Amino acid sequence: MELYSLRRIFWFLILTTGQCATASDSEVMLKMDEALLTVQNQMSYGLHVLYTSDYCYKCLYQPLASMEAGPGNVSVVVSTPFTLTLKVTSVNGSSTLCSLSYSFEEAGHYSLWVRPGDTNLEFNVTCFVSVDKSPNDTYLPLLVAALVLALLAFLWVCVPLLLRCSCMSKLRNYMCCNRSQYSMEREEAITEACVDQNRPKSSRLKSLDTFRGFSLTIMVFVNYGGGGYWFLQHAPWNGLTVADLVMPWFVFIIGTSVTLAFSSMRRKGVTRLQLLRKLTWRTVVLLLIGFCFINYSPRDGLLSLSWLRIPGVLQRLAFTYFVLSLMQTFSPYREIPPKEIRWWSPVQDVVLYWPEWIFILLLEAMWLCVTFLLPVPNCPTGYLGAGGIGDNGLYPNCTGGAAAYIDRWLLGDNIYWYPTCKAMYHTTQPFDPEGVLGTINSIVLGFIGMQAGKIFLFFRKMNWNIMIRFTIWTITLGILAAILSKCTRDEGFIPVNKNLWSLSYVACMGCMSFALLGVIYFVVDVKGWWGGQPFIYPGMNSIFVYVGHSLLGFYFPFSWEMRFQDSHWEKLFQNLWGTALWIFIAYLLYRKHFFLKI
Predict the structure, then answer these.
(1) Can you say how many angstroms the Cα of residue 116 is from the centroid of all Cα atoms in its chain?
(2) Tens-of-pLDDT digits for all 598 residues of the chain?
(3) Are 418 and 546 contained in the same domain?
(4) Is-catalytic flag, 234?
(5) pTM, two decimal places
(6) Domain membership flag for residue 386
(7) Domain presence at residue 162
(8) Do both 125 and 211 map to the same domain?
(9) Most buried pick, 59, 188, 409, 547, via CB within 10 A?
(10) Same structural domain for residues 117 and 226?
(11) What CATH number does the domain containing 123 carry?
(12) Reduced to 3 DSSP states, what percent helix, strand and coil does the chain have, rounded to the nearest 5?
């Protein structure tokens, strides 16, 4: 995901920063998520217009436009994704004349009128916004795309049914004319069906591959740009967007897969030494792919020393996989113990693994202690904010608190210099969303995924019990997330924050993962209403699709240079097209039985 971050940061800088323009309205070329605001000053003295985004937590006002004394106007380009609060002050800044909040819409032309009030007092001012040109419907492309995808899904389901009906009609005609031949063919078909029934069925969970493919499909789409919509890109700091969901789902799936895979290998007689070799090899390969992948540039090759970065997505996934695999390898229970009636039988999938739970609780205690008790120079202890202009500008160099401090101490400057908060919060310090401290909570979330795998093992073929267990975990983790965050974005004890991988974020993602996997399991594996298509195809070739879309994402036919940059239409089509191509490639590989594994 990192190769696209520089492009997104540059785009967010445009969207979140007011840009002055003295040209006339007709000469201003607006881009996607931009609107034109003309400040109409009808006062006899000069004005300053300041702004702040309502999404930015306790942020300082930033300059937007300045005007000389006397009637006049000036045009500026403003951002449209978030509601802006505008404040008008006198030139000397000694008094606030007026302030208002307004949600500007894409490609609209607006006027901010600053007029004398009803009284004759010098600083009695009336401010209001008028619409000079109607804006675009920002969400119309998304609605059309949703309807088209819904139609395609409907055809995907209905066309096979219609074909089967046609085949049945031909079969009936054939039966009338060739009854004897039909009887022979029927006997052969029955014989083949009996043979198929006697074949051992695969124990592989189609729902897990479907969940993985669903997550990967969303990841590809948001990495390509998500149609330019802000809620399909990472949140600036606290809060959740669609892009913040996919990596935790992968971590959860890793935990579930580790439990199921290692249990299967143990039943096949794989020794502990062989397991150690396998998990070590896979970890090293993932680390190397991730390290070379994020540091690749066409000019410098595989290792771009000019912007070397050590942490990364694949690195975190590799380390998480390594720790979870070690836990599963040295688990005291190599096989599921026989069922016996004990007082703790209802929770035996938790109680029997108490050493692992103690280890995870110690890890989480370490995260809490370091995050809230480690002294950070020139920063308040336990600070979780974005720094910069946030928190009234009191802690400009404290982005990420203890998490960033540990990364700088261990890794120096080889971390991420363009975090998602940089554009909105105007931060100057590096912060790595895949840093050292956040990896602890990544392991915790992966362990929660391991619990899902243990539920599958303990309650094999007991679908009702599995669904109840999944529901209990969903409710429990959801309540924990609600308590920690106080059901708010910024005011909780521990806000939901993907950059920090906060405890509330882990609980929230665990809740969503259990809910989604439970629903998919019920629909795909229990009822058989859905085969998982088309998500099951990329889900069974996740490494190939992830690396492939990242390396080839900016090349034709996956993307091209856009000609129409004033709306979301072309951007959304391009991103959906690129995502659909990778699903099609995964489908072809599935048909050829090619699965890239490490």
Answers:
(1) 48
(2) 444 444 443 333 433 444 334 444 445 678 888 999 999 888 888 888 999 999 999 999 999 988 887 788 899 999 999 999 999 988 876 678 888 999 999 989 999 998 887 666 556 788 899 999 999 888 999 999 999 999 988 888 787 666 666 555 555 555 555 544 444 444 444 444 444 444 444 567 899 999 999 999 999 999 998 988 999 999 999 999 999 999 999 999 999 999 999 888 888 888 889 889 999 999 999 888 887 776 655 555 555 555 677 888 889 999 999 999 999 888 876 556 555 556 556 677 787 788 899 999 999 999 999 999 999 999 999 999 999 999 999 999 999 999 999 999 988 877 888 899 998 999 988 898 998 999 999 999 999 999 999 999 888 888 898 999 999 999 999 999 999 999 999 999 999 999 999 999 999 999 999 999 999 999 999 988 888 889 999 999 999 998 888 888 878 888 888 888 788 899 999 999 999 999 999 999 999 888 888 7
(3) yes
(4) yes
(5) 0.86
(6) yes
(7) no
(8) no
(9) 59
(10) no
(11) 2.60.40
(12) 55, 10, 35
Q: Do 230 and 126 belong together in one domain?
A: no
Residue 165 lies in a domain: no
Same domain, 129 and 214: no
Choose among 595, 567, 573: nearest CA to 138.
Answer: 567
Q: State how far the Cα of 185 lies from the Cα of 379, in Å rounded to an integer.
A: 80
User: Which of the residues 48, 109, 234, 568 is marked catalytic?
Assistant: 234
Of 15, 6, 4, which is closest to residue 565 (Cα–Cα)?
A: 15
The domain containing residue 61 runs over which residues? 2-133
Same domain (yes/no): 541, 452 = yes
Q: In Å, how far from its chain's centre is CA 572?
A: 17
Q: Is 178 within a domain?
A: no
Structure tokens at 169: 């009609």
Which domain-ending residue is among 115, 133, 151? 133
Contacts of 362 (CB under 8 A, 6+ apart): none
The last residue of one of the domains, among 77, 109, 133, is 133
Using alpha carbons, list the distances in angstroms from residue 204 to 250, 374, 531, 540: 18, 45, 13, 11
- The total domain count for the chain is 2
